[in-house]
Structure formats: C-alpha cells, structure tokens
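Progress against Task 2.4 (sequence-to-structure conversion) is shown through the following example record, which the project officer requested during the mid-term review.
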Amino acid sequence: MSRKILPPGVYPPLAAFFHDNGDLDLETYKKHLSFVCGVGLGGLVINGGAGEAVHLSDEERKTLIRAAKEVVNEQDPGLTIIAGTGAHGTRNAIQLCHDAAEAGADFVLAVPPAYYIGSMSKAALINHYTALADASPVPVIIYNYPAVSGGIDMDGDLILQLSKHQNIAGVKGTEGNIGKVGFLSGRVDLKTFTLIAGSADFYLASMMLGSTAVIPGLGNITPRVVVELERLYKAGNMQAAVDLQRDIVEWDNAANRWYGIAGLKSAMRGTLGYGGKPRLPVLPLSEDDSKRVVDAVRKGYELEKKLRSEQSD
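Structure tokens generated for the chain above:
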C-alpha cells in the first residue's frame, strides 16, 4: 500500500446548524460551506468537535459529508474532506470510517476511545488505532484532545509508533504541546506523516517545528485570516506573522475557549449573521456573554472581510 499524504493547508472544522426543533438545517450548512470555499483552504473537517458530531446520528453524519462534498465539487473542487469518526468502541469507529468513505471523505479523524478510561493503556490505544487503520478504506488521522477524551493525552512515543502504519496519515494535536510537536518533527517521516496544529492560536509556533496543516475552529469565522498567517510564514515575513498570530490568540480564545461550542455559535451569529443554537444539551449563551464574545471577535472578522476584498480585486 502506498501512503496517501494529507495536502498542506488550513482545514476549518465546519460547524453544523439546527432548526429550532433540533433537526439539521442543511440550507444554512450549505450557505456556510459557500462562505468558506474559495479562500485558499487545504480542505474541510466535517463532523468534528465544532460540528457537534457527538450529538449527531450516524445517518446525519453521512448526510453532512455528502452535502459538503456536493458544494465543494461545485465551488472549490480542490478541497480535501476529512471526516470525524471517533467512537468509544473500535467496531463502531470502524463502521464510521466506512460510512465516511462511502459518503465522500478523503481522510478520517478519530479521537481515542475514553468511556472505559481506566482500561485505555498504551497497548489498548495502539491496538485500537491499528485496527482502525487496518480496516479503514481511507487514511486515519489521530486526534489527540485530552479535554474531550477523559484526559487521555497520547505521548510522543505512542504517536511515533503509530506513525509507522501505512494507513495512518498524521496527528492533530489540540492539547497545544509545542514540545511534543518538536519531539515528533525530529523523529517521524514528515514526508508521509503530517503534524497538524489543533488550533489557530499556536499555528505559527507549530509551523516553525514542522506542522504543515491546521484545523482551526476560528476558521468558521476567519478562514482567510488563518490562510494569511500561513502565507506570511511561508513568505518569510516573520514579524507580520508574529503580529497576526498574537491577534488570532484573542479571537480564537473568545470564539472557542471561553464558552465552547455555544461561544462559537454566538460568534458566528454576531459576525456572519447566522449560526443558530447548539444542539441540546448545550444551551445558548446569555445576551451579555454573547455580546462579550462578538465584541472580541469582531476585529478578526473585519480583517477577514478586508482580505477577501483584496483577494477579489
């Protein structure tokens, strides 16, 4: 088996949208897809954390992948589709990989199983990801995110061992451990295994150590801004890159860290004019908290509009 390499670039984890009764709002979803297309992305992540995948049925997951593939094929056919397929059971996760590939995903992204966290030894995690990679029709990306995985934080040695599998294409590190990025960049084959920053707020530092991709929640609002950060770094314009990275930290914190998915939805409503409510049990923010988020993110969105205008000139 020849290894399939993840193209470099920015991969926003696309939000999902819901009607007041909780049903999927595909019209708004496709509108949002149109917003992120055509700005220089590497691809999109469907059914990730920002997409509230843990609150979706298996059929809804497939529906969103198909809808994304349809819009991308029409508006930005070069984009790569990554689909979230994490599950607490190996058998379940394998089925989600098959579903995702059938629906049109090019890669899959899987958090570690964490329900029986006391049993998740290093051997169990290696066995899980090896079984996933052996069975998946498309390459697997490891998703290390302790905050949503019961505190499981896969260390560099474990990831290094898994990186040797022909069908494991990379790792998304949302824990923000730059030291681990440095450890891995000196040991994995960066030509075949992609180090992916899990957030926009440390993308510059991650690129400097060998990362070639990022999956930024902020990319739902300012995808072109994150692309600009990458462009500045690659052009060697380091001071401008540092200045932009510092600004991105504040916008990213407001949209993603202060209040989680409810904050992202508020940030989108206050800038893009749509977003809706999170799916229950997550509640929307209060009016005051929502205003706080939007006020903090607004400058980033203004830069987004400026960069888009310059791009079209």
